[in-house]
């Protein structure tokens, strides 16, 4: 990543230049060729960006981004819109560059097609990002987006298709012949093409009519590709592109109507096809021209060879006619090639009809190769010929090629040979060697005088005789076999042959035999030249016997022997040596010329250097280990040792001898042993090469460095070094290898390494250089000292701790006499060193322990050498204290007790603290009752006891009723006093063996074990109810509470403690539901109800997702006019299996689980959407009442902001909605609730208090918050009659509300009498079944049409007093004006 963010000065200049070019071209295109300064049918900056990244590298991407951003901002686009567009353009360029890989030049049509393909794919990114950005910022509509996306993509594709090749090609000048003719032709071409483009695309200076005239440009395109290549073609395409674009801008020319009719699709297609065809055609033509030039050059080269060869070459076609006649034949025959082409050889030279040449041509056409021996021509020359078939690339015969040689000089030489034979015979007769010749049958043709002298025969008598006639059968047979070898091979060979002289003595001859050939090249005899080497052989034999003894001694040890004569390069290798080096007889015959090629390339340089050092007498002896090739892909290790045994006067080496030892197995064993050493090492061990690559590693190393063993081997050791030291590590490794000296690396400094998971840890490392296979490796031993460091740290920490807490230490001998103490011992016991040393350890005995205690202690010490535990001891002043004592025994080498070390510390205070902690952990600090932990433990114990004794036990769960009200009213201090008194009273109602616990808050539990009958539980429960019903004195106040009790039994109701607690809780819950101040026994029906409640809760979590909720609407009527001004949204749950579920059943569950928040949001949005529809179609001033749970007020007012924003999205004001809340919410109103209500006020949303009068009503919150409506609960309206208390209460609420400027809505109006009474009381609005039950939206719509049929109250007899203003809330007006 760093290399993409680091720039040199040159790269910075390129980057800035790219950004400037991109921005400038983008500005020009957006000004002249773009729609709304955003979309263009061609986007040249895309081509510029891709070409720049291809030529300058991907590092220039910031230039693309900066240029795209500046260009977009320059064109007037906002920054928020320009940023994503610039990102999309940058990703397009990078993507295209990635897809093109290493393509940087246009050399063939496939290269251009790759650019076109890459641009097509990469442009999708920029088009998608850009069009979505415009859609997001409102620059285009949703309907315009598909067209915008297509145009954006088309523009980028066309820009890349034209501009990228233009830059890649024109960055190098054209190879143009600037002669006047070419210049004038180029100017004429450009001028003509320009004028044609003007007339076609701009209708200037002539209008050519309305037809497909644009395709005339293809004629110029083809001509340009043929004459001016890729440079001219791209210049023409660019000119046509600009002319067509200006024609579209000015609405003239061929594409004038394209914008309105096809959205510029025709122009885009034309330009894309024009560029694709033109560039591909130009590339194809250039490639063809290059291939043609190569073929021409190759043809000229071949022609030069044919004309230069010193043999005649004739090529015939399938009809035997001459197609080629080279210069050698022109000189030989006197016929030129022009005279011979198309003719048969007989037409040129009729005398050839008497030869096999014509027939040979026909045979060659059938696939044969024919050799014609020398034959006389008509001019006296001797000619030889070879005819063979000529085949094409498909191996089909397409003619015949004939090679002709002039053999005249060879024939003349043969004729002159007879003259030379006489001279030669004289030489033969006077040579001291034996010379002879034999024919193919083995008969002697010629012998010299030396032969006659040694073997008692003469030249005349020997003719016609064979070796069998002259020598013993076995020797004659060997001589014949040697002759046949020479005749069969046709090559000269040397043999050692044993022949008897006329005196019967066997002599050894070194015979050089070679074949004799006639003028036609045929072997007709074998000639031999034999030299008597008997004396030399005798000397060699003696030397060989000596050498054999030497070689036997060496080869018996498995070594091969070699002898190198540096004067002539001859090398002798013993059989073992040849076996080691994998040489054969042919290699020996060739004097092992290729021996250097058998050496491994990696070892060759070093071996040759060592050899040269010894040859130059700079080393005492030569020794080198290297690999030699053994088979196709096998290498063997060889130890070569040698010594120069002969030098000339100048010290130049003349002869060198030595041995070869196959050490492959030793090397393998060396690696195997090294591998075993590494694997068997208990420490982490690595073998590292000179380049830092890990060659071997053992499992401890893999474990230490957290690598798989296979991954660690082959890894570079630098990866295991911390990054801060990694840069210098190769240099340090090289320095160590030069020093070639083992050393521990961590002796004087701290080292760390890196695990595979990136964790750094401390290590100690030792390094050992080791030479293997001509290379130096480093054997690395790594010791992870993390644990040691940790232990050292812990030891230091423990020493500090011991020093801080004063741990006492006492050392005694085997007889329990004190021999050493520390200062902490003196501080703890009061005994100084003078007091204690030499005394028995009994001076510390307190006397509190009986003999059994000490007997147990000594038994442990004698058996294990260790004891620890709590003990009471005595100080010097006689004080008894509690201590923790640890005694360890130190043994001698013989296993006898030598020392006992005691470490102890006083734990008197600690025991007190432990007791305190235990009590705090198990008892409630306020009431001193058992807490939840102790209760759980006691319950488990009681269950085990009851199970063992076959008894029953009862669990009672108590919850105080309305304790929170007392706590909030009188304060937490008084609440604590009440809880303490409650605990005291409960304890008074149970036995001492029973467990009473406080689980938390106002919840208590009781465990009653060993029950005789369930009637005793009734007595206890009634006693508790009675005790807690008595008043509590809390300061100056008397408080009254009650309690709800749930009771369950073991084993009747459950067997597990957890289930018993759950059963008691369910029973207590039912007691609460049935009115409190009572107790309930658990029944199975309660569990079923709880399970149903749980299932309903589970279904409720999926109801919103499954769209099971729906809204009903109930109208709210203005009683004075009978008109519907409001409606209330009421949620219903259509359960898939249980049908319609009442809100009273599922709303409490939703509030308990928190689901009410999401449900409330859904209700608001659905209701708001519905009121928007009804206000638009029926009632512009219709209001919607929406209930909001107190739970929804517990979160921040972010949800309110979303509600208000949603109203604005629907085009609704806040006055269209009324939020209905409960009184209890305002009683406990905190800052969050206030923020909600103030947010409603600021948004113009009205607030209504639902079910007013059923809770703890207070006038203060009506003054504090902006309340608009009070809704009288239906419980007051249901029994409404004249002169009833409910009527008086309703009238009081109405008067109070009007005095405070509030409106009143009465709920639950079901009869005409209720309507009349409420109207008489000046109630503002009414709601109930008298008007309409809650209806679905579709049915509710019908109420707008039947409004006149709705019941209305009888007008009151007197005119109602005008309500006081909303801001007037004085007490006098509240109770004084209306009576």
Automatic annotation (TrEMBL):
Gene3D superfamilies: 3.30.70.270, EAL domain, PAS domain. One of its GO terms (molecular function) is cyclic-guanylate-specific phosphodiesterase activity. GO terms for cellular component: plasma membrane. Residues 493-545, 622-675, 867-919 form the PAC domain. It is an enzyme of class 3 (hydrolase). Residues 1093-1348 form the EAL domain. It is a multi-pass membrane protein. It holds the Pfam family PAS_9. The chain crosses the membrane at residues 12-31, 37-55, 113-138, 150-170, 182-202, 233-254, 266-285. Its EC number is 3.1.4.52. Residues 1345-1379 are annotated as: Disordered. Keywords: c-di-GMP, Cell membrane, Membrane, Transmembrane, Transmembrane helix. Residues 951-1084 form the GGDEF domain. Its cofactor is Mg(2+). It is found in: Cell membrane. InterPro entries: Biofilm_reg_signaling, EAL_dom, EAL_sf, GGDEF_dom, MASE1, Nucleotide_cyclase, PAC, PAS. SMART domains: EAL, GGDEF, PAC, PAS. The keyword Membrane applies. Residues 305-368, 420-490, 794-840 form the PAS domain. One of its GO terms (biological process) is cellular response to nitric oxide. It catalyses: 3',3'-c-di-GMP + H2O = 5'-phosphoguanylyl(3'->5')guanosine + H(+). This is cyclic-guanylate-specific phosphodiesterase.
């Amino acid at each position: 990543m760093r290399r993409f963010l680091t720039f040199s000065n040159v790269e910075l200049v390129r980057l800035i230049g790219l950004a400037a070019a991109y921005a400038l071209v983008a500005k020009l295109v957006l000004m002249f060729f773009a729609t709304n300064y955003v979309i263009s049918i061609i986007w040249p900056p895309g081509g510029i960006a891709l070409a720049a990244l291809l030529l300058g590298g991907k590092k220039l991407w910031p230039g693309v981004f900066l240029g795209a951003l500046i260009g977009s901002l320059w064109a007037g686009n906002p920054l928020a819109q320009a940023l994503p567009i610039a990102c999309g353009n940058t990703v397009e360029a990078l993507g295209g560059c990635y897809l093109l890989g290493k393509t940087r030049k246009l050399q063939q049509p496939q290269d251009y097609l790759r650019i076109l393909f890459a641009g097509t794919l990469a442009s999708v990114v920029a088009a998608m990002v850009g069009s979505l950005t415009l859609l997001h910022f409102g620059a285009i509509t949703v309907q315009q987006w598909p067209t915008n996306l297509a145009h954006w993509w088309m523009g980028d594709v066309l820009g890349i298709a034209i501009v990228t090749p233009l830059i890649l090609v024109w960055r190098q000048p054209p190879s143009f012949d600037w002669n006047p003719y070419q210049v004038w032709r180029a100017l004429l071409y450009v001028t003509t093409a320009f004028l044609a483009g003007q007339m076609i695309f701009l209708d200037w200076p002539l209008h050519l009519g309305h037809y497909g005239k644009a395709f005339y440009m293809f004629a110029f395109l083809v001509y340009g590709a043929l004459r001016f290549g890729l440079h001219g073609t791209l210049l023409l395409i660019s000119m046509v592109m600009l002319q067509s674009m200006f024609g579209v801008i000015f609405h003239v020319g061929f594409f004038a109507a394209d914008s309105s009719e096809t959205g510029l699709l025709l122009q885009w297609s034309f330009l894309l096809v024009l560029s694709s065809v033109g560039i591909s055609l130009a590339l194809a033509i250039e490639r063809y021209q290059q291939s043609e030039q190569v073929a021409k050059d190759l043809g000229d080269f071949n022609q030069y060879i044919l004309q230069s060869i010193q043999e005649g070459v004739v090529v015939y076609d399938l009809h035997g006619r001459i197609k080629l006649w080279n210069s050698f034949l022109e000189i030989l025959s006197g016929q030129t090639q022009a005279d011979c082409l198309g003719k048969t050889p007989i037409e040129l030279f009729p005398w050839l009809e008497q030869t096999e040449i014509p027939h040979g041509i026909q045979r060659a056409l059938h696939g044969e190769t024919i050799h014609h021996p020398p034959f006389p021509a008509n001019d006296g020359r001797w000619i030889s010929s070879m005819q063979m078939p000529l085949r094409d690339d498909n191996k089909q015969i397409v003619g015949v090629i004939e090679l002709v040689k002039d053999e005249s000089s060879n024939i003349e030489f043969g004729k002159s040979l007879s003259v030379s034979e006489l001279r030669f015979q004289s030489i033969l007769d006077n040579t001291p060697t034996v010379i002879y010749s034999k024919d193919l049958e083995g008969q002697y043709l010629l012998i010299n005088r030396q032969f006659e002298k040694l073997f008692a025969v003469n030249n005349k008598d020997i003719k016609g005789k064979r070796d069998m006639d002259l020598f013993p059968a076995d020797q004659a047979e060997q001589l014949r076999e040697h002759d046949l070898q020479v005749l069969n091979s046709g090559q000269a060979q040397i043999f050692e042959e044993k022949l008897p002289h006329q005196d019967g003595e066997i002599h050894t001859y070194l015979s050089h035999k070679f074949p004799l050939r006639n003028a036609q090249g045929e072997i007709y005899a074998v000639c031999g030249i034999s030299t008597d080497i008997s004396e030399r052989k005798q000397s060699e034999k003696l030397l060989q016997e000596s050498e054999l003894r030497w070689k036997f001694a060496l080869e018996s040890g498995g070594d091969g022997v070699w002898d190198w004569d540096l004067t002539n390069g001859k090398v002798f290798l013993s059989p073992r040596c040849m076996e080691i080096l994998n040489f054969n007889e042919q290699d020996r015959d060739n004097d092992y010329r290729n021996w250097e090629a058998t050496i491994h390339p990696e070892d060759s340089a070093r071996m040759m250097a060592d050899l040269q050092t010894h040859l130059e007498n700079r080393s005492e002896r030569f020794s080198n280990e290297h690999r030699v090739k053994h088979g196709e892909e096998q290498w063997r290790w060889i130890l070569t040792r040698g010594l120069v045994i002969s030098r000339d006067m100048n010290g130049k080496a003349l002869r060198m001898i030595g041995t070869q030892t196959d050490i492959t197995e030793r090397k393998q064993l060396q690696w195997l042993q090294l591998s075993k050493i590494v694997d068997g090492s208990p420490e982490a061990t690595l073998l590292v090469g000179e380049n830092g690559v890990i060659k071997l590693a053992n499992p401890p190393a893999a474990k230490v460095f957290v690598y798989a063993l296979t991954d660690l081997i082959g890894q570079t050791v630098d990866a295991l070094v911390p990054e801060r030291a990694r840069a210098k590590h190769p240099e340090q490794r090289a320095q160590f290898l030069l020093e070639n000296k083992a050393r521990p690396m961590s002796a004087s400094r701290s080292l760390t390494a890196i695990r595979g998971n990136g964790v750094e840890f401390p290590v100690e490392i030792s390094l050992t250089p080791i030479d293997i296979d001509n290379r130096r490796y480093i054997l690395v031993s790594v010791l992870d000292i993390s644990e040691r460091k940790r232990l050292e740290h812990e030891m230091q920490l423990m020493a500090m701790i011991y020093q801080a807490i004063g741990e006492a230490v006492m050392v005694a001998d085997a007889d329990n006499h004190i021999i050493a103490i520390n200062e902490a011992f003196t501080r703890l016991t009061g005994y100084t060193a003078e007091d204690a040393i030499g005394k028995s350890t009994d001076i510390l005995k307190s006397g509190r322990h009986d003999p059994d205690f000490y007997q147990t202690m000594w038994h442990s010490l004698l058996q294990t050498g260790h004891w620890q535990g709590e003990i009471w001891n005595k100080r010097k002043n006689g004080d008894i204290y509690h201590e923790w004592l640890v005694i360890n025994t130190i043994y001698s080498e013989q296993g006898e007790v030598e020392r006992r070390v005691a470490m102890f510390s006083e734990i008197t205070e600690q025991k007190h603290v432990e007791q305190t902690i235990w009590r705090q952990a198990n008892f409630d600090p306020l009431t001193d009752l058992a807490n939840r932990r102790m209760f759980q433990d006691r319950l488990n114990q009681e269950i085990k006891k009851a199970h063992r004794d076959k008894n029953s036990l009862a669990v009672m769960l108590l919850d105080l009723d309305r304790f929170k009200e007392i706590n909030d009213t009188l304060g937490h201090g008084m609440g604590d006093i009440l809880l303490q008194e409650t605990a005291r009273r409960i304890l008074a109602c149970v036995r001492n063996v029973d467990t009473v616990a406080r689980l938390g808050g106002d919840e208590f539990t009781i465990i009653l074990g060993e029950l005789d009958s369930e009637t005793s539980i009734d007595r206890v429960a009634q006693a508790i109810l009675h005790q807690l019903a008595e008043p509590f004195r809390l300061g100056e106040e008397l408080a009254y509470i009650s309690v709800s009790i749930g009771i369950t039994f073991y084993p009747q109701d459950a067997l597990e403690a957890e289930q018993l607690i759950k059963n008691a809780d369910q029973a207590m819950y039912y007691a609460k539901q049935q009115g409190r101040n009572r107790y309930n026994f658990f029944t199975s029906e309660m569990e079923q109800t709880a399970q149903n409640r749980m299932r309903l809760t589970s279904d409720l979590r999926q109801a919103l997702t499954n769209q099971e909720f729906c809204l009903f609407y109930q109208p709210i009527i203005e009683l004075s006019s009978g008109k519907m001004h409001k409606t209330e949204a009421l949620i219903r749950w259509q359960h898939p299996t249980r049908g319609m579920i009442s809100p009273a059943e599922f709303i409490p569950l939703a509030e308990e689980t928190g689901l009410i928040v999401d449900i409330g949001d859904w209700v608001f949005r659905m209701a708001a959407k519905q009121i928007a529809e009804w206000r638009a179609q029926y009632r512009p001033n219709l209001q919607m009442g929406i209930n909001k749970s107190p739970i929804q007020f517990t979160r921040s007012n972010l949800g309110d902001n979303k509600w208000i924003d949603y109203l604005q999205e629907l085009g609704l004001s806040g006055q269209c909605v009324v939020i209905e809340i409960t009184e209890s919410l305002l009683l406990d109103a905190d800052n969050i609730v206030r923020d909600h209500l103030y947010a409603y006020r600021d948004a113009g949303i009205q607030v209504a208090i639902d079910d007013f009068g059923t809770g703890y009503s207070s006038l203060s919150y009506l003054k504090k918050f902006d309340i608009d409506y009070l809704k009288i609960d239906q419980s007051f309206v249901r029994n409404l009659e004249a002169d009833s208390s409910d009527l008086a209460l309703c009238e009081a609420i109405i008067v109070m509300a009007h005095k405070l400027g509030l409106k009143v809505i009465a709920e639950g109006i079901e009869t005409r009498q209720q309507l009349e009474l409420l109207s008489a009381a000046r109630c503002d609005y009414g709601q109930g079944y008298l008007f309409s039950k809650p209806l679905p939206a579709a049915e509710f719509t019908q109420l707008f049409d039947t409004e006149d049929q709705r019941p209305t109250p009888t007008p009151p007899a007197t005119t109602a007093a005008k309500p006081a203003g909303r801001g007037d809330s004085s007490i006098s007006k509240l109770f004084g004006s209306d009576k």
